[in-house]
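<goal> How does this chain fold?
<body> The protein record starts here
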Amino acid sequence: MMVRFSTFNPPVAFNQAITFGGWVKTVATSSGKSSIVWLGGSIDYAVNPHNYFGLSEQGGRARLDGYFETRPKIDGYFEGRKYFVTSDKLINDDQWHQVVAVIDARPYRHSMALYIDGDKEAEAFVPNPIPNIEKIRVGFRPSGGENFSGNIDDLFILSSAITSEQVNQIYNQGSSLVRP
């Protein structure tokens, strides 16, 4: 499954917080990352910073990545830092699993959390600000090589960081409709 959305012009600003996720069903165990949903900036590496967030499957587990480019290198490419967390729980058991990313880069928060089936699986530091979103990809990354093998359903993107209780509410009601 691959879905390509139009480029957002101007980019969508998420104002220090974003929550995104959905439901996945797979039996894949990829050695590389298998992209579920990718949100990011330009992929013209030589011209623009390539900041992004992505949910993926890797080795049967869910993974949340955040990449932030900070300054140009001498050869004209940007230099940055990647932050990621991986779930302990397997998601490749041919059952539906809710996968949710909550990124909160507001002052004194600076966290990105990964939830599987309503439970927080992992959390890590994330710098601010959250990059503007120019492109959204479902089932693949723009740079290629990370196509998702399985089903993706009921995706959502919110312009706020929801609480653990709200993530659990979404899971328990079986859909992604929530009003933070």
About this structure: The first helix runs from residue 164 to 173. Residues 1-9 have pLDDT under 50 and may be disordered. Residues 112 and 124 are 5 Å apart (CA to CA).
